[in-house]
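This follows on from our talk about sequence and fold. Can you supply me with one protein entry, sequence and fold together? Could you add the entry underneath, on a fresh line?
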Amino acid sequence: MSLTLADQYFLKALDNYTFDIEQTVESLNYALSYDEQHPAANCLLGRLLMEKLKRFPEAKHCFERALIEDPNYVDTYKFYSQLLIWMGDLEKAETIIEKGISKVGMPKLIMIKRKAAILEARGLVQEAIKENKRGRLLSSGQFDFEHFHGEVKRLKRKCKSMRSITPTSRVAM
């Protein structure tokens, strides 16, 4: 197996991500200096810009560059869809989710979480509950099952509290 220098530096960056941001940035800079189109390095840079620096337009650019270079790199779909939801671009997030869900190796439960988040953001709480129930049924581990179960309970409480507000006292969202 032969790894390029860009691959090696990307792996160092990934290994350090969230624990040692300074080392992550240094390794990412090296990876991208060896291959500026490296999809995984661009995706990780997008995550860093999104999660740590909150520089969403720059993160979006990195994710788009990663998708252009390798449309089969599944991590890009996971994180790019989350960014688009945060930015309120729900239409594009749905498109990315639909493209990503068909990719080999894509964790389907993550895409179900994203779909449920979009439904909730649109105010379609009952549909979000159904999507989370679907995720609960497809869960093969305790952690995922508990996540979806908790989301169903939270959304049901949300529906109940929405119903308890009288129509005249509701605030427009």
In short: The CA atoms of residues 5 and 30 lie 8 Å apart. The chain has a mean pLDDT of 94.
